[in-house]
Design brief:
alpha/beta; Purple Acid Phosphatase, chain A, domain 2; six-stranded mixed beta sheet; about 30% helix; about 20% strand
């Protein structure tokens, strides 16, 4: 079920939001720790006021939000070639600090008592602007996403985009700030390996921009190249998510080919894929799940290679056998950032693009989108650049934080200039 709110903010309310953001920034500076002053023996000792738990939590929340602001601002500046040794060192330290991920994850959100939301992010493909816009936008919400929400990236971080190092440092920096509440999944563009003989990174997909760039600029640091390939190669393929509404599957592409579909099922107890036969069946199924594309018609091969299409019959067979209610995937660029299939039970979410975002590799995507799931399992889709998003059956889904369009023909209640957006990229400047 798609949750579509309908609310408009007045100009006064918009001004209030901007004022609140400015006051937040100022309050963080004003609440820095003041050095203590030693008292003389006869002077009264000041007894510090004890902050309430709510006040401490608020201060902590603001601090995390400010750290995200700082991170975005830091990497909006170009990383020069002389900065690369430090960048490589920081990335290696990050790779070393991360535990090796299993090929699957099980998330059970049914028993959470607090309002903890899930932000589902599709392909980002080295698109710094879209990622920064997401963080900027969520920072304006009354809900503190950075302190409460879990962020799940559906894969395809590499290739296509025109800015690599700034994007990587923003992505990794965000993961370091949020820890377990930021999850990276594997996409087909993370099929890379380090070739010991050549001493270079090699990509299993085309077009491939990231590996050649790293080979060119970081090729003398073989340890870095190895760690880079190892980390991105060993990300989880799928997440089984249990919500109040049922069980959802988060995956980069889709479902296994129908030739092996009946040989593997996903356990609801552990999340693991159980196979009839040897582990090669599992490897084939996982590989299929980062290449598959949904179509309204029947299953057919796409060029006879790794990428293939599945239809309604295959979808029904898979979700019934695995007791799955919805699938959220990315992998394909769609004009409005989101596309629904099979009676709103499968959604494509694409999170890179934008009509005035020249660094994105997908100019055909007018409105990159993320999905936001509430604790009750309800989902809404958010446009990163504050533009209209339309999916099938006449649904019109817009930004619920700042404005909401009541119907497809109505005018926007908020102009881009009212947010002091960067005119070239539509990125909010904090």
């Amino acid at each position: 079920m798609i949750l579509i709110k309908k609310n408009r903010l007045s100009r006064t309310e918009i001004s209030s939001i901007k004022k609140t953001v400015a006051e937040l920034s100022k309050s963080i500076k004003d609440t820095q720790t003041v050095p203590s002053v030693e008292k003389g023996p006869d002077e009264p000792v000041d007894v510090p006021e004890v902050a309430t738990a709510a006040e401490e939590t608020t201060s902590s929340n603001h601090l995390l939000k400010q750290k995200v602001f700082t991170l975005v601002a830091k990497y909006r500046k170009d990383i020069n070639e002389e900065d690369l040794p430090k960048v490589q060192s920081e990335l290696k330290a990050f790779f070393d600090s991360q535990p090796r991920q299993p090929y699957y994850l099980l998330m059970d959100r049914r028993y959470e008592k607090e309002d903890k939301r899930l932000v589902i992010i599709g392909d980002t493909h080295c698109d710094y602007n879209s990622l920064a816009a997401l963080f900027d936008k969520l920072s304006l919400s009354a809900y503190d996403y950075f302190d409460k929400a879990t962020f799940i990236f559906l894969g395809d971080y590499l290739d296509r985009g025109n800015i690599l190092f700034e994007y990587l440092m923003l992505l990794v920096g965000f993961k370091k700030l949020l820890g377990d509440r930021c999850i990276f999944m594997k996409g087909n563009h993370e099929l890379i390996e380090y070739n010991e003989a050549s001493g270079k990174l090699e990509s299993m997909v085309r077009p491939a921009d990231t590996c050649p760039t790293l080979n060119s600029y970081c090729g003398t640091d073989k340890e870095f190249l190895k760690k880079f390939a190892d980390y991105f190669t060993n990300l989880p393929y799928y997440i089984l998510l249990k919500t109040a509404k049922g069980t959802d599957l988060l995956v980069h592409g889709g479902i296994p080919r129908d030739a092996i579909m009946d040989k593997c099922t996903i356990s609801h107890d552990t999340g693991e894929m159980l196979v009839a036969g040897d582990d090669r069946i599992r490897e084939m199924a996982l590989d299929n799940m980062i290449w598959a594309d949904p179509r309204p018609d029947r299953f057919k091969l796409q060029g006879g290679g790794s990428r293939f299409e599945f239809g309604y019959e295959q979808f029904e067979q898979f979700v019934i056998a695995n007791k799955i209610d919805h699938i959220f995937r990315s992998h394909e660029p769609v004009k409005n950032g989101v596309e629904a299939f099979y009676n709103n039970r499968l959604f494509t979410v694409f999170s890179t693009g934008g009509t005035k975002n020249p660094i994105a590799g997908y100019q055909e995507v007018e409105n990159p989108v993320v999905a936001i799931m509430g604790i009750d399992g309800e989902v809404r889709f958010e446009s990163l650049f504050f533009k209209k998003v339309t999916i099938n059956k006449g649904y019109t889904v817009l930004n619920t934080v700042l404005y909401m369009e009541e119907d497809a023909s109505a005018g926007f209640s908020l102009e881009l200039d009212d947010l002091h957006l960067n005119n070239e990229f539509y990125v909010i400047n904090q």
